[in-house]
Amino acid sequence: MAHRRLRSKSSRLRALDQGRRIGDEVKLSRGTLGMSLERVADRAGVSWSTAARAQAGDPTIALATLCAVTEAVGLDLVLRVYPGRQPSLRDSGQLTLVEHVCEQGRGSWRPSVEVGVGEHGRAIDLVLFGHTEILACEIERVAIDFQAQFRRADMKRRDLAAGHQRPVRLVMVVEDTRRNRAAIQGHADVIRAALPAGPREVLRALRSGRALGRDGLLWVRRRRRQRPAPDASREGRSRAS
Prior knowledge:
The structure is a single chain. This protein is α/β, with parallel strands linked by helices. It folds into 2 domains: 9-72, 434 Repressor (Amino-terminal Domain) (Orthogonal Bundle); 95-220, Trna Endonuclease, Chain: A, domain 1. It is 49% helix and 14% strand. The chain contains 11 helices and 5 strands; from the N terminus they run ααααααβββαβαααβα. A hairpin with a 6-residue loop joins strand 1 (110-116) and strand 2 (123-129). Helix 2 packs across helix 4, helix 3 (37-44) crosses helix 4 and helix 3 (37-44) crosses helix 5. The longest helix has 25 residues, at 9-33. The chain starts with a helix and ends with a helix. The model has no long low-confidence stretch (mean pLDDT 84).
């Protein structure tokens, strides 16, 4: 039962809410059709108690069973996922890249991490607030489908811009690895058109505090943690022994 303890409170509440919504739809459709719960169970090929649990919104019912019950009352169950809150920057290993960008920032930039935007709990990894514009920085450790990653980041940028009068520029911060370089090289022209400001231009804006003026791409190397220096006194005692 250890896996149950790992589930977050928000995920449990989300499952309960989704289960109730589906159950309400099943109940409404069943009533509209004038079908008894026994008839629904028979058409779905499940027991009466299982059909009753589906109508009550039990989130632990198997997906295949839930599809059978909804189909029995004339509903088509469709599941779809939306970009939501990502793992924290620390959990995803992105924090060191964020720290590097913040270290480059000078002048009027005011940093804020994991800024919530839009619906579904989405957040921008790092936002730099300036006097004349805002930089929405999305951290990408691995360029899997960069065009899709750009579209997702651009959607977040638009949500952020809706609440501000200043222009919001998107800066895609990508970990500088051979794999990522090779992945992006194949789409260089498209990326250059979408993110016209190159790394040098982005760094100049960060270090000077001046407005960037357009979207950009920044390569950042992830720094390795240095091993602590050996304890000299302990080493001395070891040699003496």
